[in-house]
Amino acid sequence: MKSASRISRIAAAVAGAAVLTAALSAQARELSVSTVLSDAFPWGQAAEKWAELVEERTGGELTLRVYPNSQLVAGDQTREFSAMRSGLIDMAVGSTINWSPQVPELNLFSLPFFMPDEAAVDAVTSGASGEMIFEAIESRGVIPLAWGENGFRQLSNSRGPIDEPADLDGLKIRVVGSPLFQDTFTALGADPTQMSWADAKPALTTGAVDGQENPLSVFDVARIDQVGQQYLTLWNYMNDPLVFAVNQQVWETLSEEERTILRETAVEAGEWEIAMTREQESERLAAIQERGVEVTELTEEQHQAFVNATQSVHEKWTPRIGEELVDAAREAIESR
Ligand code: X2X
C-alpha cells in the first residue's frame, strides 16, 4: 500500500510537471531578433522597443530576444538575411544595405544622391515603391512588417577635408560588403575596402583604412573621431532604412492575433525610432563638432560634382534593381 501510494504520488508529480511544461511552452514562446548595432544606438533601441511592446501586448506570451552585434551570424552582417530566410534567425531589424546581396531591389536606397532629404525617403518607403520592395523581400521567404531608419550616411576620413571628388583620390575607404558601394567609391577615385562593421573600427585605428561612411548617430555613439577620423563631409549621399521582418515559417506558426500584434508593434517601434533618429541629428552634429571634428558642408556646385561623378553607378545598377521600381521611386520623390 505504502509503496503503491508513493508510486502514484511520484506519477502524479511527474504528470503534473509534464502538464506544467506543456502549458509553459504553449504560453511563452521566445523568438530571436538579430541586429547589427546594440541598444547604445537608435537601431538597437528600435529592436528593444519592439520587444517591449510585443511582451506588453501579448501579456508575455511572445518574447522577442534581441541579439545585437550580428552575433547570430558571427559578425558577418551580409549573411543576416540568408540566416533569417533559412530559419537560423527568427526575426531581424536589418539594414537595406546588408540585405541587398540577397534582395537586389534594396540597392535602390544606395543609389548615390538619389534621395535628397527625409521627405524623399518617406515618399519612397510609404508609396508604391515601398510596396514593391516589401513584395521583393516576401518573394524571398521573409515577411517584412515595418520600416525604421539607420539614417543619411556621411563621409569621414583622417587625411583632410573632402569637398570634391578629387579629394577622395586614392583614399582607402571602408565600405559595407555590398558590391554597389565598391562601384560608388571606385567611381569617385577612392580605394574602397569591403569589411564588416566589427572590423571597421580596428581598421580605422591601425590606419589600414583612411575613412568610412556612416550616419551621424553611428559616428557619434561609436566615437569614430577617437580613431583619427577628424574630417567629416555632410553629403547625404544615401539613406539607409531599416526593415523589421520575420522568417516565413515562423510567421505561419503564429495566430492571426499574434501576427497583428507583431505587425502593429513593429510599425510603432519603427515610427518611434525614425522620429528619434531625425530629432537627434542636430545635437549629434554639435557634439561631434565640439569634440574637434572639422565638418564640411557642400555648396550646390560641389554637390553636383559628386552627382556627376557617380552617374555610372546609376546606369549599371538601375537594371539590377529594376527599371520599374526605380521609376516608381523617382516619381514618388518628385511629387513629395
Ligand atoms: O556596417 C555599417 O556601416 C552599418 C553599421 O551602418 C551597417 O550595418 C549598414
Automatic annotation (TrEMBL):
Residues 1-28 form the signal peptide. Keywords: Signal, Transport. It holds the Pfam family DctP. InterPro entries: DctP_fam, TRAP_DctP, TRAP_DctP_sf. NCBIfam families: dctP (TIGR00787), TRAP_S1 (NF037995). Belongs to the bacterial solute-binding protein 7 family. This is DctP family TRAP transporter solute-binding subunit. It comes from Billgrantia antri. The lineage of its organism: Bacteria, Pseudomonadati, Pseudomonadota, Gammaproteobacteria, Oceanospirillales.
